[in-house]
Amino acid sequence: MSIWGFRLVPWLNMKIVDPLMQIIRRGAEPKQLAFSTALGITIGVFPICGTTVVLCGLAIGLVGNRCHAPSVMLANFIATPIELSLVVPFLRLGEAISGGPHFPLTSDAFKKVITGQASRDILVSILHALLGWLIAAPLILGALYIILVPCFKLLVHKFSSMPSSPKKELKPKARAV
């Protein structure tokens, strides 16, 4: 195994696996974990880099007790590499939906961006990427939720130290004498 791979495994364990196991062991509901993770990933792929943590915080504030805040933030962290890879597909989707001009991703366009000659084009492309994300976000959220519910049911059942939903003990009724 390479040195890079050797260092990657402990980092993944420390940053992703261990926090996930702590969340699962605390006895959260599988559906709540699935929704929170799906929400964190969906917001985590928002096409404007650097804004997802704030957006996740706003979502946690709006959704309240229906989501598990640490799961949302962990999923947002995990989604960062995916976010970078989806900017161009969101841009192209937004262009296709709006019928707007195609933003060229060439070295000439990059030079115009750096020199400030393409400020209107950049703004339009950002709006197209946002439109693409707005169209895709409900589909991403729904698909992830459907996929993650059985996964979290299995994980909670296997690793949780508490039952997933506390059951009320039924007290026997006292007999009338």
TrEMBL record:
The keyword Ribonucleoprotein does not apply. Coiled coil: none annotated. Keywords: Membrane, Transmembrane, Transmembrane helix. Residues 21-157 form the DUF2062 domain. The chain crosses the membrane at residues 38-60, 72-91, 130-156. It comes from the Eukaryota. This is DUF2062 domain-containing protein. It comes from Canna indica (Indian-shot).
